[in-house]
Write a structure and sequence with these properties.
By secondary structure, this protein is an alpha/beta fold. The protein is built from 24 helices and 27 strands. It folds into three domains: 352 residues, Leucine-rich repeat, LRR (right-handed beta-alpha superhelix); 110 residues, no CATH class; 119 residues, Phosphatidylinositol 3-kinase Catalytic Subunit, Chain A, domain 1 (Ubiquitin-like (UB roll), Roll). Helices cover 31% and strands 24% of the residues. It comes from Rotaria magnacalcarata.
Length: 667
């Protein structure tokens, strides 16, 4: 009786508010929340929530802030939508987002005569194949109604994802006759990629105006632009791995006059800036908006304002918006870097941008890194921040990584907190101990230092960090973070910092962790490297990239890091004395797995040999593209699923909780 009385009082308070105030409150909530909780509660609330603003766009997904993923709503909520809500409002829905567990139930519940935009999230291949078949009862909807489609495919077998994604890609254009916009696995973190030139050569669509897609190789992008999508105006492309391929003669000559907006993002590195990026963009004669986000590896010159003007801006007279975030790595010194003022003058006719540059020098690895980007910074990820970071305000950034050869001190973490107020993920890569650790402890005990606050931090990765940084984040007195923090670290580091989990001062902070992920891997791997008749020993970091290891080996044997043309091989684990080629794309993950499986004194035998030229694949910096990996065992080639945390819990929406939330928003 007491609970019912309390609910009644809350409803009375909500019902006392005018319609305008209620509309303002409800607009702050998710439409699905509003409909599930308030439809059919009473006549007045029912009338308000049936407004077009709450019915037009409906998302039946739950959001996980830890890894920015989505998953299905709980079954009781979906049951209520299918049995009571959707049959009443289906005719008013224009946009619908669904997850794999609710797709078929929701789409078969009622008719959606005005449905134009459909989002299918985390959908399995078999479900997608069934939906886009001639036998599907929804075939007429895809053929006659859907003009905008968002589809995010998931695969149980990661090694089959590329071919299966290409099949679905072709089926979509066969079934969707009026498709104007397609976003297929558009996120950088999605697994599915397109890697099948046949899919592009056999697919023709004269209606498509906008395409967002994740690709594997540069030629895949070229086939999209070869005329099969002749009305395409907007193209957003993400490459999920290093791009070695260059443009052939055929694709260098073909012009692309219809494209107005082009965005290119590469998650790894790009080789051959002039032969790929420059020649591709120059073909886009009438480009109005351009967005570039990539790291250029092994370049002989850095990409600065003069370079962008000479290679791109001069050839694009209609370009009025140019955003970019470009890193260049150079393996020798003696280069002059232009000032910020000089770069700013180059872009003065593009009024939306302020240009910022920075330079970092890494003496241990013998290279310099040049960064140029447009400000305001628009990307969610800001990588490789060093002590040279000058600060600023980056409200779009949610993922940050820090790396340097010099230790990070207290003032640096304070600057990071002030610059990235909405940071959710932080990765620290620094093996150097802090210099001012004891001074900070003394000042903190005397309450001289203020607390550094990371209010939105949900994931902290310290697997490549010195123990000092783990200790820093486990002390309440130094750094404040939310109670739902997911911490990734090495088990040995955690033992040392907590004195085998007996240290009292860290106990309270550990209790507040939402999740803890530990890798009991070896901290270093001893590598015995053969080069001709020479043999050397070297210690490898299990987290090192393929290119970093190559640079270490080149330096070990005093080889030219720019013009070296060698292939790296590894001894076969099954046949002693037999060496097989290493695949750069899987090497870093396999190195981690090797360190985990051989946590006690791991030893790795490597061999450096001259690269062999092939007509089908051009060697780039000592690596033959698409070479055989060192092992065909799936257990050695599996993806590291521990890199991202996932949460699969969902609570049903409580009307009492919702009303309190409304009243809180009102206050």
């Amino acid at each position: 009786m007491g609970r019912q009385a309390s609910m009644k009082n809350l409803l009375v308070q909500l019902d006392d508010l005018p319609d305008e105030i209620l509309m303002c409150i409800f607009k702050k909530l998710y439409n699905g929340e509003v409909l599930y909780s308030l439809m059919d509660v009473n006549q007045r609330l029912d009338r308000i929530v049936r407004d077009t603003i709450f019915l037009r766009d409906l998302c039946l997904l739950e959001y996980c802030p830890v890894d920015e993923s989505t998953f299905s709503l709980p079954d009781p909520i979906i049951d209520r939508f299918c049995s009571t809500i959707l049959p009443k409002i289906g005719h008013k829905i224009k946009t619908l987002f669904l997850s794999r567990t609710s797709i078929e139930r929701v789409l078969h519940t009622t008719n959606y005569p005005n449905l134009n935009h459909l989002g299918l999230c985390d959908i399995e291949y078999k479900v997608a194949q069934s939906l886009f078949s001639d036998e599907s009862p929804l075939a007429h909807v895809f053929k006659n109604q859907i003009s905008s489609l968002f589809i995010n495919l998931s695969f149980k077998d990661p090694f089959s994802r590329e071919g299966l994604t290409s099949i679905i890609f072709m089926e979509i254009f066969k079934r969707c006759a009026n498709l104007r916009c397609l976003k297929i696995n558009p996120s950088l973190f999605d697994l599915g990629t397109l890697n099948n030139s046949i899919a592009y050569r056999t697919t023709i669509c004269s209606t498509l105006l906008e395409l967002h897609v994740t690709l594997t190789h540069m030629p895949d992008c070229l086939y999209i632009l070869d005329g099969h999508f002749d009305q395409l105006r907007i193209l957003h492309v993400t490459f999920d791995r290093t791009c070695f391929e260059l443009l052939d003669t055929e694709h260098r000559l073909k012009l692309l006059p219809n494209l107005r907006i082009f965005s290119l993002c590469c998650a790894a590195k790009i080789f051959g800036y002039n032969e790929s990026i420059v020649l591709l963009v120059r073909r886009m004669l009438n480009l109005e908006e351009l967005d570039l986000n990539f790291t250029l590896a092994h370049c002989t010159k850095f990409i600065d304002g003069d370079t962008l003007k000479k290679d791109i801006i001069t050839y694009r007279p209609r370009l009025y918006k140019f955003t970019f975030n470009i890193w260049s790595r150079i393996y020798y010194n003696g280069i002059h870097f232009p000032s910020n003022e000089h770069n700013q003058n180059i872009f003065k006719h593009i009024s939306n941008n302020h240009i910022i540059t920075s330079t970092d020098q890494f003496q241990e690895k013998r290279y310099r890194r040049y960064h140029i980007y447009s400000y305001p910074y628009k990307w969610k990820l800001y990588n490789n921040i060093t002590n040279n970071f000058r600060g600023g305000l980056f409200t779009s950034v949610t993922r940050v990584s820090l790396s340097d050869e010099h230790p990070f001190e207290y003032e640096f973490f304070l600057r990071i907190a002030q610059s990235f107020p909405f940071m959710k993920e932080l990765t620290i890569k620094n093996r150097k101990a802090q210099h001012n650790k004891q001074l900070i402890k003394s000042n903190n005990n005397n309450q001289i230092l203020s607390i550094i606050e990371y209010p939105n931090l949900t994931r902290l990765d310290l697997r490549k960090a010195h123990d000092d940084y783990l200790e820093l984040f486990l002390f309440d007195t130094n750094i404040s973070s939310p109670n739902n923090l997911h911490l990734c670290c090495n088990y040995q580091s955690l033992e040392r910092v907590t004195n085998y989990f007996t240290r009292y001062i860290t106990r309270n902070k550990c209790v507040n962790l939402a999740a803890l992920y530990c890798n009991p891997m070896a901290s270093t791997i001893l590598a015995i490297v053969e080069y001709g008749a020479q043999k050397q020993r070297i210690s490898l970091d299990p987290h090192s990239s393929y290119q970093d290891i190559c640079n270490q080996i080149y330096s070990l044997f005093k080889l030219d890091t720019i013009n070296s043309k060698y292939s790296l091989q590894r001894q076969d684990s099954l046949k002693f004395g037999l060496f097989i080629n290493i695949d750069e794309r899987t090497f870093q993950n396999e190195l981690k797995q090797y360190a985990i499986k051989n946590s006690q004194n791991p030893v790795l035998r490597l061999r450096l040999i001259p690269a062999i030229s092939k007509t089908t694949s051009k060697p780039v910096n000592g690596v033959l593209n698409r070479e055989k990996a060192w092992s065909t065992s799936s257990s050695q080639c599996q993806h590291d699923e521990s890199d991202r945390a996932s949460t699969n819990s969902a609570a049903a929406i409580d009307i009492k909780q919702l009303i309190r939330k409304c009243l809180t928003n009102l206050k």
